[in-house]
Amino acid sequence: MKSAREQTDMHAAYKELGSYRAAAEVCGSTDKTVRRAVARATAAGEAPGAGAVEHNYDDVAAVIAERVEKTKGKITAKRLLPTVRAAGYTGSARNLRRAVADAKAQWRIDHHRGRRPGVWTPGDMLVFDWGEIGPLFVFCAVLAWSRFRFVCFADNLGADATLSALAQCMETIGGVPKTLLTDRMGCLKATTVAGLVVPTPDYVRFVSHYGTRPDFCLAADPASKAWATDCTSWWDVGEAVVA
User: Fold this and answer.
1) Taking a C-beta distance cutoff of 8 angstroms, is the pair 84, 193 a contact?
2) What is the C-alpha separation between 144 and 126, in angstroms, rounded?
3) Fold of domain 125-242
4) pLDDT at 241 (0 to 100)
5) Which residues contact 180 (CB under 8 A, 6 or more apart)?
């Protein structure tokens, strides 16, 4: 058990350095012991204003925020270290990494990509598309939540081949997903009204028979096709099967 004097010294060192690890090195103790000493001092009211602990990088926070904004959140703490050193920062590289990470997280709140990421649930979404390998066409489908992959081959991209491949895929899965998601492939698209795809009558009869529903990606919007990279590349799947 540390004496009251030692605990006071630990608290003073922490206030000066802003790091449990650095204070522990100065006091010849461990960071856990310093953390407990600071917690006791705070609980006993011996550390006025401890609710807003000052950090040794607070003086250069504006510099960090400026560089993060200028580089669109891409700068690293390693590249920023010489700049903040010149601005008067004397802390460790570890503390700087924490400060840069916080600044990047704050920057991303106001500079998001403008869309929500796909959040899959079991049995919710089957995504599919066609690829091409030499003279063959490869139908690839991924059950989004489980990443279950299905691949088959055909000699054309017609509606009959697509619906047959979908039926075979659901038979292999052993169930019917809630939604079938694909791009705006011509064999399944009858027309487009106000930017929304109207499926062909054959596709409507198909999804009605299986008790699912069709969905299509947004036009000219790469962000709406994020599932293609999230669920793996169709070409890579086809190459793996051929190999």
Assistant:
1) no
2) 6
3) Nucleotidyltransferase; domain 5 (3.30.420)
4) 39
5) 126, 128, 166, 207, 212, 213, 214, 215
